[in-house]
Amino acid sequence: MSAIVVSKAHDAATRPAKRRRSGGGWKQIAVNQAFLLPLGAAFVFLVVIPLGQTFYWSLTDFTGYDPDASFIGLANYASILKDPSMLAGLGFTLLYAVATTAVITVLAISLAVQLNKVFAGRNFVRSVWFFPAVPSMAILGLVWRYIFSPLESGVINSVLAKLGIAPVGWLSDDGLARFAVVVVGVWAATGWHAVLYTAYLQSIPEEYYEVAKIDGASPRQQFFGITLPLLTPAIVISTFLLMTGGLKVFDLPYALTGGGPGFATQTITQSIIIAGVSQGRSGMASALAVLFTIAVAALTFGQLRLTRALERRLS
Amino acid sequence: MARQHPYLASGLALAMSFSLTACAGASDDNADGTTTLTFLSWVDEERFGPVVEAFEADHPEIDIEMTFTPPVNEYVQALQTQVLSGTAPDVFLIAAENKTNLIDGGHVVDLSGEDFVKNVEPFNLETYGRDGAYYGLSLASWAGGYVYNEDLLAEAGYDGVPETWDEFLRMCEKLKDAGITPFLEPADGIPFTMAAWLGAKTEGMDPTLDQQIFSGASSFEEEWTPLLEEYNRLFEDDVMTRDVVGLDGQMVLDEFTAGRLAVMPAGGWTVSSILEAAPEMSWSFAQIPGVDGREPYAAGAASPGYAINSASDQEHQEAAKVFLAWLASPEGTELIFEQTGDVTVTSDFEPQVDPHFEPLVDNIRSGRIYLPMIAWERSEDVLNVEAIAQLQRMVTGEITPRQMASALDAKLAAS
Question: Which of A151, B191, B193, B405 lies 20 to 30 angstroms, CA to CA, from B249?
């Protein structure tokens, strides 16, 4: 049985009925549109105007204390592009976003498939996996800082010591520190995304698998022929959330490594907050925010295009 | 039921959203003749509330409306927003992180002509001053030195921390030979050791070390490199692990209280933690050993100062001065010391600190303390963030001490 057949059958079963044309003419349409006004106003006041203001301030030497800032053109943008720490921050932010998105997606789908099976204590196990998503990332970062402590008394190093292995500088080596941040990010979010995938898995009709079994499909063929294609809407949502969340990550690396060693685990959001709040360089922080917004928009747009294409190919 | 206009709900919702933004607190003179003074504290109400209550009891004509925001970033951000929107309180704190912007923007009142600054240690006033003007009433300071485990040092034949860096390194080697971790100084900030050395160096300089660097007469590379090279001996001689890059103060404190560490840098805030976690331990504070023939010194800085909002009207500014004068009085400083544990620096009240911390009290009360970030003339946090990152790169062996100092020069030039 091919994936195409299954998908078409699924589409036929789940495709919504053609929306009926709403009656009432232009008056009803106007009334309906009026209910969008508060939302539209909120969007304008909370998103459009702040974005415009941010762009304006990015062209000034605004300190955050006095509104009468001087116009300095693109000087803030030039400073950012020349600053090695900013570029390092951009590099790690991209690494974190891509790595966590990829690893969590693979792990969460695998986990969801297992959690979707019937076994004793299933709900408890689901809760256990979901739990790391509950505490704030800042608290998790502080806890994991002790686990990854480079001292012999660190949790992991004390286990290694019992095995006769010398202490490892988890947070004092550039590569290991980046690895540690990604590991904690994956650990914290995998369960949450597995629950998301589980919800989608439960909507796949059991009949598809029964038909596939009758046709002699192996479990692997069932996964790649039925499960994965029908999970693509969930993959789109999950990867979108992971990518946007990863790009704006701040609390976890800040609590776990403080952005170090050096600038190894510094993120763009950390740079924006430090420049804008601690350093009174709100103009610079605004420029960074503008560049970051453009980068995030481009990346997420590209990702959506990619996942939509994948969705069309699989379905 | 009457038919309601369909646009009404939307319009009302929109109007409500606007009206909510108009809600803002403001203090006005009261009908009973008292003046309400607004005050943004970064010490919580539980600890600072009794101070305010005692003042109000002494001055019933002034009512203090205190709000609390925790330090440091949250406080700086909250105050920044209030200053920008013209809703800043009458009294707030000026700190290392915001002093340049507050002074440059003319947001704080000059206190230099007031009587209540006369009994305050000049070092504290000058920390939040410029060109002879004082913009913050800093009534306390903190100091950081070395805390040592007397029992572990005794195992290596020592009864205290040596006074010179060479002797200290020799002691560390002996401790290491005895199987004891000699010294851990986290690299999550500019080391107390470096701060103390820089303080000792600038003490004998006129113009000061930082005045020379910021005027262009000298540079970080010239002034810092020799000291950074001395500090780097800790790693080159394998006295201290390079893994300190991944440590913070709490981790090091845990090692110390567990009896696994002989010496650590610390300030007065660790006294209660050590007493609680290791009540049987024999320990004490010491100044940081001197280098290049200089005397031992201490890291440290003046605590944030109480500042008066220049945008407040004259009546509120006068009331604020009454409040500050009371805080600087013996009654006020005694209560501040009791409630916060901060070592105060006024000449007419002498705080009685825990005996363990006694070796650093003279440094605090005489202003013989130094912290680069607060001594720098501008771009304080920019340079501090850069210094920490470059220090970590130096500790891991990625760059040399000279390259670290040069990076600070480059950052200063670009900022």
Answer: B405
Please, what sign has the CA dihedral across residues B359, B365, B368, B370? positive
The answer regarding whether domain B143-300+370-414 maps to CATH 3.40.50.2000 reads no
Residue A214 domain flag = yes
**Contact call for B414 and A42, based on CB within 8 A:** no
CATH class of domain segment(s) B32-138+304-341: alpha beta
Where along chain B do its domains lie? 32-138+304-341, 143-300+370-414
Of residues B77, B100, B392, nearest to A277 (C-beta): B77
Tokens 């800032």 sit on residue? A69
Tokens of A239: 């990867």
* A182, A257 Cβ separation under 8 angstroms: no
Give the pLDDT confidence of B112-128 residue by residue, as tens digits: 999 999 999 999 999 99
Q: Under 8 Å CB-to-CB from B189, ≥6 apart: which residues?
A: B388
The question of ipTM being above 0.90 is answered as: no
CB pair distance less than 8 Å for A261 and B245 = yes
Convert the pLDDT of each residue in B53-102 to its tens digit.
Answer: 999 999 999 999 999 999 887 898 899 889 988 999 999 999 988 898 89
Q: Quick one: angle between helices A228-247 and A174-201, nearest 10?
A: 140
Residue A9 lies inside a defined structural domain of this protein: no
Q: What does the angle CA A253 – CA A268 – CA B185 come to, to the nearest 5 degrees?
A: 45
